[in-house]
Amino acid sequence: MTAITIAVLNLSTALTDARIEEALPALQTQISRDFALVYRTDAHLVFVPKTGRPPAGAWWLGVFDNSDQPGALGYHDLTPEGRPFGKVFAATDLAAGLSWTVTMSHELLEMLADPDINITIFYRSSGTAGRLYAYEVCDAPEADAYGYTIDGVLVSDFVYPAWFQDTSAGDAQFDHAGHIKAPLELLPGGYIGVFDLSGSGWIQLHPTGAELHYRDRPRVGSRRERRRTPREQWLRSTVTY
């Protein structure tokens, strides 16, 4: 199994280089020990400080402040070489009382599972209707409460392939931490994007009775926002050091 190189870039003012770098060993363990075993995709994380440059050919994971800053690099979608580019909005997380390490873990795993943000799973409800479920592996158990710790660092739970298979047996493992008990189950605080083929387009599913918050809206530059955006409108990024 060949490991993908992912450059982790600190482009924020909310987190120091040291704070991000000290979280990377736990994230590396999650990818290589937990995720790769299930999805057969591994990655090698390389930290890039504010004074550094990412290695050629690497995918990028950028740590930004907020997703709504006009002209922020977070609006861009691909590296200069056209490779996948994930985003973590650390200041937004901190202001909302959320764990930025869970968000970083979330984005890393989803980037590895669906790097082009174009994989969906089809469920047909009738002969002429159905839905396409986004292949997002951390959305259903997204809440910090369902994460788990590696060497003291909180990381995101993630679903197994059985979660997307409505014929999976009840004793199947649906997520890594063991919270989910059935296919397509959404835990409190979780969600999943689906494309309704009846004409509604992309909609967001939440657990029944869930109270929605501002943060449930797709952030500009997020995977949810990019999945709704035609790929020809994606932009290549530049970084000035």
List keywords for this structure.
single chain, alpha/beta, four-stranded parallel β-sheet, 10 strands, globular, 241 residues, four-stranded antiparallel β-sheet
Shape: globular
Strand arrangement, major sheet = 2-1-3-4
**What kind of assembly state do the chains in view correspond to?**
single chain
Proportion of residues in helical segments: 10-25%
Low-confidence stretches are none
Number of helices: 5
Largest sheet: 4 strands, parallel
Q: For the terminal residues, how far apart are their CA atoms?
A: 33 Å
Order of helix and strand elements from N to C terminus: EHHEEEHHEEEEEEH
Mean pLDDT: 88
Q: How many extended strands?
A: 10
Kindly provide the radius of gyration, computed on alpha-carbon positions and rounded to a whole number of angstroms: 17 Å
**Which percent band covers the strand fraction?**
15-25%
Structural classification:
alpha/beta
